[in-house]
Design a protein that fits this description.
Chain lengths: 192, 242
């Protein structure tokens, strides 16, 4: 569900967040309107709004683990984890994590990729969140859910800053709820 | 610097004066007792529990024997993996630090205590592990976070700096317009080894007229003499792994 559907209708923070996200047309390839969150990170007030909204939602849900997907999930996951007293687990491209890992393959538009998680990350009975900057196809988040469930964690929810409108309503990913702050921003020629 | 603190007297938190390079505690990860001035508070715990950006300036009591247990605990939470990514390398794995909620919180607190109130408006973090430590620090001190990325990851206009690897070179990129001349910055990464990556980040920021207040890492490998590549920029580390 989107934040506006879940009690944040009219919350001015959502507009500030949306306004802080820059759209870059035709990146990384023609036809893609890329949602650039780096401009959000340059706005300490808007960045803090993102973290505050997620923390307010999750702080009483008994979450023990926040997982974030390399690399932009590394930016949003840790501040949330720290504020709610959960550990942070990085989910990484192959070969980056040392020690024993478990690995999950997922589909790309052309070909496939793999995501890895340390086998030390999950103890038994963990309640986990997965955080990323944006959900488009849901492929990366689905792979992340698989990794955590294979390791024995319960995935409580996936949280994203930006999500395509198709994720409105009670949309679920692999049966897990999805919580999204804003829809994609529109390209404004004047700001480029 | 040492400050004797009576367990019965609370004191207000003072920012620690800049430490000389490499004063960090060569035996820290052997858990030898170290006393640091102004590092006894649990201000950071309240900071994160309340979600507030401004830290209270009151501190808690010290432990009875006056030791600061935070650094030793951080050091012991870092796992060393031999022969990764290749034979002969003893890899300093911070992912175990991230699994230890107290150690991770303390790591951020130590940096925040050092950098808050010093007019730092930019926290630059080097991809990818600098992305884990940089944003919490930036949020706590009210600075913007600027990711320094591998080539072709940042959309839009970038400036680029080449740096040497053991074999060959790589490039680091930063967005045009992310920072302005005259801003004061710190650069964050999990570890400094040869210093090549941090030196590239310094060059990128200085090309745009930014003043580097300090480079800050969780871990230093002093034998690799990375700090010599940093020019005039000071280096601050929590754990020195000789």
């Amino acid at each position: 569900m989107f934040a506006v559907e879940n009690g944040l209708q009219g919350d001015p923070r959502l507009k500030a967040i949306s306004d802080a996200i820059r759209v870059i047309p035709h990146f990384p390839k023609t036809g893609i309107m890329f949602q650039d969150i780096t401009t959000l990170l340059l706005d300490p007030v808007a960045f803090k709004h993102v973290v505050d909204i997620f923390v307010d939602r999750y702080k009483h849900m008994n979450i023990s683990l926040v997982a974030g997907v390399e690399a932009r999930g590394f930016i949003f996951g840790p501040p949330i984890a720290l504020a709610i007293g959960a550990k942070f687990v990085p989910l990484r491209k192959p070969g980056k994590l040392p020690g024993r890992v478990i690995s999950e393959e997922y589909e790309l538009e052309y070909g496939s990729d793999r995501l890895e998680m340390s086998m030390e990350a999950v103890k038994s009975d963990e309640r986990a969140l997965i955080i990323d900057d944006l959900v488009a196809t849901g492929g990366t988040l689905s792979a992340s859910i698989n990794l955590l469930e294979r390791a024995g964690a319960e995935v409580v929810e996936c949280g994203c800053v930006v999500g395509l409108p198709k994720f409105k309503g009670q949309c679920r990913l692999k049966g897990k709820p999805l919580y999204v702050l804003v829809e994609p921003s529109q390209f404004d020629e004047l700001t480029l | 610097m040492q400050t004797l603190i009576s367990p019965f007297v609370s004191h207000s938190l003072r920012l620690a004066p800049p430490l000389p390079r490499n004063s960090l505690l060569n035996n820290y990860h052997q858990a030898s007792p170290i006393r640091l001035s102004s590092h006894f508070s649990t201000t950071s715990l309240r900071l994160f529990n309340s979600g507030a950006a401004a830290a209270s300036r009151d501190s808690e009591m010290t432990t009875e024997d006056g030791k600061d247990p935070r650094i030793a605990k951080i050091a012991s939470s870092i796992r060393v993996i031999p022969d990764f990514p290749k034979p002969g390398i003893m890899f300093q794995d911070i992912t175990t630090l991230l699994l230890d909620t107290e150690a991770f919180k303390d790591t951020i607190a130590l940096f925040v205590e050092r950098y808050q109130g010093r007019g730092i408006s930019v926290v630059a973090g080097v991809e990818a592990r600098g992305f884990i430590f940089g944003p919490p620090i930036a949020l706590a001190i009210g600075a913007k976070f600027v990711p320094m990325r591998k080539p072709k990851k940042l959309p839009g206009k970038v400036i680029s700096e080449e740096y040497s690897l053991e074999y060959g070179t790589d490039k680091m990129e930063m967005h045009v317009g992310a920072v302005e001349p005259g801003e004061r910055a710190i650069i964050i990464d999990d570890l400094i080894a040869t210093g090549g990556t941090l030196a590239a980040a310094i060059r990128l920021l200085e090309r745009v007229g930014v003043k580097i207040v300090e480079c800050a890492c969780v871990i230093e490998l002093p034998e690799l003499k990375g700090k010599e590549k940093l020019g005039d920029a000071p280096l601050f580390v929590l754990v020195s792994s000789a």
